[in-house]
Amino acid sequence: MSQVDPKETDVKISETYNADDADLVLVSSDEIHFKVHSYHLKSASIVFRAMLDSPDVNVKKGDQPLPIIYLTDNDIETAEVLKGALDILYHKPFPTEIGEYRDELRKIIPFLRKYECDGSIEGIRSLLHRWITYSDVGAWSAFLVSAGTEDIVTCYRAMYSASELDISAEGGPQGFRESSTVFDLGSLSLERFCQIPGPIAWAILRATNSRPTSTKKWDEIADDFLELFGVEDNQP
């Protein structure tokens, strides 16, 4: 933990998180400064709470520089990810464009898991369950996000509800093949297939082995998928 006054240095400051009454600065791995309110971090993350409650961050306001935390992970602590994570920690409304936000969430969730923002992750899980009921595209998006975080129950619910999805062809030798369902893994383009973690893809293949996809009994396939992981759907 350091003490730096961004006004006295040549730094790039976030346009969104630049509050005059901020009491903390977070610096992303690509060196963007976010002036934030520590209350939101402490209330959402036990890791940030432990960091911010340590004696060396008890800096007085006024003319004193703000305490600063440098984030260094180039994969999950960039300005893009940090901004998205802060939006969640500040309880801002989730974006309504499912396709775009799906890809953003796949980057944000590892950050939230690293800092043990359990309440925020539960909020995202509830969002994914709502996506499943919205549309087939929402169910596929919920599946991709939950697969990336090994949330087996949400994967199961998405598979159970989404038997037929309207997926656009992607062309080329590694492109899309017509199928009755997106969970027919052989129909996916290479790009889409690679978005599914290995254990999840394995379980789908095993679950469909004895049930040809032409039967469209994806509720039964979803049950087999869940059983392979030894997981029960006890979530509300």
TrEMBL record:
<dbReference type="Pfam" id="PF00651">
    <property type="entry name" value="BTB"/>
</dbReference>
<feature type="domain" description="BTB">
    <location>
        <begin position="22"/>
        <end position="90"/>
    </location>
</feature>
<dbReference type="InterPro" id="IPR000210">
    <property type="entry name" value="BTB/POZ_dom"/>
</dbReference>
<dbReference type="InterPro" id="IPR011333">
    <property type="entry name" value="SKP1/BTB/POZ_sf"/>
</dbReference>
<protein>
    <recommendedName>
        <fullName>BTB domain-containing protein</fullName>
    </recommendedName>
</protein>
